[in-house]
Amino acid sequence: AIDDQRRNTQHTPIDQIISSDHHLDQSSINIMVEQQYATVVSSPSQHQHVGIESTGGPTKLGHKCCGGCCDMRRAVIIVDILSLVIGFLSFSVMTLLTATASIWGALNYRYWPVAINAVCLAFPLTRSFFVGDLSIMLIVVTALWIYPHVMFCLEVRSGVMSRETYHGREEFSCCCISKRIIVSAAPSGIPVAEVVMV
Fold first, then answer.
1. Taking the CB of residue 131, how many other CB atoms lie within 10 A of it?
2. What distance in Å separates the CA atoms of residue 61 and residue 74, rounded to the nearest whole number?
3. Which one of 76, 121, 146, 192 has the minimum C-beta count within 10 Å?
4. How far apart, in whole angstroms, are the C-alpha atoms of residue 60 and residue 42?
5. DSSP letter string over the chain?
6. Measured in whole angstroms, how far is the alpha carbon of residue 51 from the centre of its chain?
7. What is the pLDDT of residues 97-137, one digit of tens each?
8. Beta carbons within 10 angstroms of residue 53's beta carbon
């Protein structure tokens, strides 16, 4: 049966599988990598995932912002760019300094500038708590602003996020990556790739 499958295969460049705009369903696709090419055939529905994801790289270990928006490094940079805009509009030198330092920290995988910015972001909430004008809106906005900074610091501290792991494993964006190839192992032992829309 395997020989019959191989006789009916088509040779397709891996980049074409990933970036092509034509419809790709959720059925498994058998991939036998030979440099830039893959052998594509139908495969059994039962297979065991072996942790290979997105163009052949390892499965992402880090957190995805809001469950699937982007990786935490990207989230920190986006949030702090918004903080820079707010800082310019409000003429807040402190906001400009801490947001700039946090962006530098995210770009260079340094957690301490990001952690300092997280503390500064929490200051208005702390002040409101002691003054007595705490509101639900302030709590929600502050939590959403601090959340990516805290997660980024935890990932960098644990070694999940680093210069070595980011581009090969941790990088993620729902709007920049339209298709993922997840390579698994079928019962027959033949490598299998499953196209997953994200």
1. 8
2. 15
3. 146
4. 26
5. -HHHHHHT-EEEEHHHHHH--S---SSEEE---BTTEEEE-B--S--EEEEEETTTEEPP-S-BGGGTSBBHHHHHHHHHHHHHHHHHHHT-HHHHHHHHHHHHHHHTT-HHHHHHHHHHHHHHHHHHHHHT---HHHHHHHHHHHHHHHHHHHHHHHTSSSTTTIIIII--BTTT--EEEEEEE-TTS-EEEEEEE-
6. 15
7. 999 999 999 999 999 999 999 999 999 888 888 888 888 89
8. 18
Token output for 40: 């594509």
| CA-to-CA dists, residue 160 to 111, 117, 152, angstroms | 12, 21, 10
CA 165-171-173 angle, 5° bins: 170
Measured in Å, how far apart are the chain's first and last C-alpha atoms?
32
Over residues 85-102, the mean pLDDT reads 96
Rg (CA), the chain: 22
Q: pTM (2 decimals)?
A: 0.61
Can you name the residues that pair with 34 across neighbouring β-strands?
37
Two tokens, residue 187: 């019962």
* Residue indicated by tokens 């935490």: 72
